[in-house]
Structure formats: structure tokens, C-alpha cells
Amino acid sequence: MKKKIALFVILITVLLWTAMNDYPLLSTAYNAVMRSEYRPVLAKDKQDLRANLNLVQENINTIHENCTLDTAALEQEITMKQKEIEELSWKNIVLDIRPITKELFFVHKKSNDLKKKCSGIEEILVVDRTKAYDITSPQFITYLAVDSHEAPSFVKIENNGNSIIKPDLIINGRDLSSIEAIAQSITNDAMTDKEKALAIWNFVKDSKYHFGNPTTYVERDSIDLIHSWGYGNCGVTTRAVVDLAMLAGLPAREYRLGVHIVPEVYFDDDWHVLDADGGIYFTADDGTIASVEDIEKDSTLLATANSSIYSYDYFKNSYSTLNNNVVFQYQPHNINKKIEYQLRPGESVLFMNSNQGDYFSAVNYNEPPEYSNSLFIYQPEEVEKIIHFEYHYPIIGGVITGESSKEIQIYGKIDNEAWHQIYEGDGPFTVDYSTLFTNGYGLPDTAYTLRFSSRDITTVKIVTEVQASLRSLPFPDEGEINSIEFKDTLGTEDIHTTVEFGFSKSNSAR
């Protein structure tokens, strides 16, 4: 047994050392080890946990400086977590560190909520006026004028009919439901290859912002960058450009430059770097967009553009590492994935142009500067004993309210995991089961199931909170007459849906 453990440790060490010294292997061997359920604890694990614990302490320091809220319980949790972190060791060959990372994330969330309370920040949806449309046919097209001084606060789609619907709301012709739909929306046959490539670069650049990846050691789908997050670093941004270019009929590839990753797109008989993460491309004297090879040969090309994200020295160091500059053999992943959802009778979705501080992170627990907390709200006339929820967005919270005439139990579970009891009692109840969902490590949950011991529940309301990218949500454009197209992709004939837009002159969520 000891020999097997020793061989296991040696194998893991070799894989990690090899991956960390050979950049192209970073997303294969290294990632495979790091996302394992049981593995040795590395110095990086403890470093990340300490850094996130420091974020909690910084929040407490801010609270002490600005108000007199009681933080004793939170400080006690910090002390306990600090002890647990320091006791972690690589000697724990098969240690699962996921529980401590999840617990630490929710400690951090408590400190964030307390800091906001201390500073008087309240997340209030202020609406000056609404515009609602009742839809009774699967196809619906209308126009909505939005004054320039107004900003959209929300859009709500509510299924008031007796049949399931699968709605698709398209604003001004922007169909963002899949990478293929996006490629068709932003390019056309009348464009030259260069115009297509630049349209793709502009779209990706403007659809996301540079911020640390929320997930660890996994390949993220391009459509999730656009819809779920709206932020990420150079790797996932590069793949969005490559995926869109290939769907538009343009050869494209991923180029790894030591510490940076860029996409190259082929047009006009050559390769060209279109760095959507850095928000730039570099040009030669004749106006030609440079390739990686061009920049390697002539680093003065880096002076032809300035990035708001990366410095000149960063780019110079990236392109000058010639031994590490390689074309990575990237294969599109989940290229046909669609962001879609169904609404049952009595179910609605509220896409919000704001957030209440609930988000997913598996790396650095700093709050993203821009995102939406949107809500799927289910109010059935009668409660089924088992209800499944699936939305293709990261689920970051859930609340059930209702009333029962006798004692009941409510259980929840994720995928094939065991059932967890989240409530027992009778009478009116409110149950927040947000800790049921994964946070602080790995990947977020996009589906879950609830089970009720009895159907003797009245006025039940189930709210699932998700995280979404503000820039992908179907909000009208300010100062324009917007074309709004509603489709039910299930083709339901018996449809009764309400689409409501809310506007606020003082909206400052973005």
C-alpha cells in the first residue's frame, strides 16, 4: 500500500512539474490533476485560501472603521478557518478540500453583506414606468421607443397560459442564444473576410470585460462567457473569437505566448492577431494587421496600439518568449450549446439590470464589478412532490415561501447527490437554501431538484436566483426605437404570455 501511495505522489508531482514548465500542457495534465475530487494539497491551495481569508478580514476592518455593527461571530469564524487552512498539508494524499473552500466563500459573503449594511448600500429596484405586452400567438414583433434619459431596469417574461413555453426574446435583431446565432447576427455574406473578422473582434471585445476567470482548471464554453459571466481573461476570450470566426467560415487558431493567449484569424492571405481581451490589434506601416510572427520579428509594432488592460512591457515579454510561443491545438467545445430555458404555467423570469451581491467564484472571491442577479419565479397552483429546475445559468441562490396545514419536510439535491433536508415544520415558512449550491470551488450548478413530503402547501413561491451577464440580457437600447421580437421555440399554439419592461431615470446598476 505504501508503495502505491509513493508511486501516486511521484506521478502527480511529475505531472504538475511538467505542466507548470510547459505552457501548452497547462490545460491538460495540470488541469486534470487540479480539478480532481481528491488530490494532494499544494502550496497554491493554501495561498489562495489565505488570500480569500484576507478579503474577509479587510471587510471587517472596513466595518470597524465606519460603524458599530457586531462582528464577533464573523471574527470567530475567521479564526476557525485560519486554523483549518494552516493544518492543511500535502501529506493528506487524498484530501477533499472542497468543503473548506465552500465554507470560506459563504463566510466571505457574510462579510460582504455586513459591509454593505454598514455603508448603507441597499439594493432597491426603482421603477418609474413600465410597458407590458400581452402575447397570445407564438410570433410577436413590436417596437418600443426608449427616451435617452431612461435606462432599462428589468425585463420580465411571465407564462400565464396552460402550456410550457420556451421563449426567445430578440432585441434589434441580436440573437445571442448560441455561438452560431451570434455569428449569423454579426456577419453576413456581403462582408469581406476582414470585415467579418473585425466584426467578431468588436463583438467579443464589447460583450465582456477583463476580470479573473470565475472557474478553475476547466475549459469554459464561449457561449457561457457571453451569457453567464461577461468577464474572463485572455484564454476564454481567445476561444470566443476563434469559435465565432470558424462559424463565419474563417480559419482561426489559438496562439499561446508564454503568459498571454491571443487569437489569430486568417484573411487576405495571412494570419492576423485580433486580441479581444486586450482590446487591440497591431498594424504595420501599410495598415496591415500584424500576425504573431510579424511581432516576433519586429517588436516596434507593439507601439502602434495602446491597451487599457495590458502594458507595453507585458506584451513585449509575451511576444519575446519565442521558445514558448506555440499554436495550441484547440478543438471547439460545446459549439452547438444554446442558452435556453422553459417556463411552466405559473413561472416567470425577471432579468435584472442590477444585482444584490450574489455571485459565483472558485478562485479569487473579489466581487465582479458588473453582473446581474436575475430570478426565475415559480408559483404553481398545486405543488408537485418532485420539481426539477434547470436554467443553463449559474445558480447562486434559492428561496421557498409558502404555508402548510400540517408538518412537512422539504428536501433538495444537486444531480446524483444525496437528498438534503432543507426544512421541517408547519404553518407559514420561508426557506433560504442557497448553501445547497456549489460555490467557492469547481463549477457552478445549473440544475437542481426539490422534493416535498406532502402536497398540503398553499401559496407556494419558489425563487431561483442566477448570475448572468448584463451585456447579454434582452434590454432595449437607450435613445432608440427598438424592434422587439418574441418567439416561442416550442411552437406552442395555446400561448398566453406577458412581456414587461421597466424603466428608471435613476438606474445606476451598470
Keywords:
single chain; about 500 residues; alpha+beta; C8orf32 fold; disordered N terminus; 4-stranded antiparallel β-sheet; Jelly Rolls; 19 strands; globular; about 25% strand
Write up this protein.
The protein is an alpha+beta fold. It folds into three domains: 85 residues; 210 residues, Jelly Rolls, CATH 2.60.120; 150 residues, C8orf32 fold. Strands 1, 3, 11, 12, 13, 14, 15, 16, 17 and 19 form a ten-stranded antiparallel sheet that branches. The N and C termini lie far apart (57 Å). The N terminus is likely disordered.
Task: Put the structure in a nutshell.
This protein is an alpha+beta fold and 510 residues long. 29% of the residues lie in helices and 27% in strands. It has 3 domains: 35-119; 129-172 and 339-504, Jelly Rolls; 179-328, C8orf32 fold.
Task: Record the SSE blueprint.
Layout: H1 2-21, H2 29-34, H3 43-66, H4 72-87, H5 98-119, E1 129-135, E2 139-145, E3 151-159, E4 167-171, H6 179-186, H7 193-207, E5 209-210, H8 222-229, E6 231-232, H9 234-247, E7 252-257, E8 260-267, E9 270-273, H10 292-297, H11 312-320, E10 325-328, E11 347-352, E12 372-378, E13 386-390, E14 395-413, E15 420-432, E16 447-452, E17 457-468, E18 481-488, E19 497-504
Parallel strand pairs: 5-6
Antiparallel strand pairs: 1-19, 2-18, 3-11, 3-19, 4-18, 7-8, 7-10, 8-9, 11-12, 12-17, 13-16, 14-15, 14-16, 14-17
Helix pairs in contact: 3-4, 3-5, 4-5, 6-9, 7-9
Radius of gyration based on Cα positions = 25 Å
Q: What is the average per-residue confidence, as pLDDT, rounded to a whole number?
A: 88
- Structural class, by secondary structure, is alpha+beta
Calculate the terminal CA-CA distance, rounded to whole Å.
Answer: 57 Å
Low-confidence sequence ranges = 1-7, 18-25
| Helix content percent band | 25-40%
CATH architecture heading of the largest domain = Sandwich
CATH superfamily of the largest domain: Nucleoplasmin core domain
CATH topology of the largest domain: Jelly Rolls
**How many domains is the backbone divided into?**
3
SSE order, one letter for each helix or strand = HHHHHEEEEHHEHEHEEEHHEEEEEEEEEE
Overall shape: it is globular
Quaternary structure annotation? single chain
- Largest sheet descriptor: 10 strands, antiparallel
Determine and state the CATH class of the largest domain.
Mainly Beta
Total number of beta strands: 19
* Helical segment count: 11
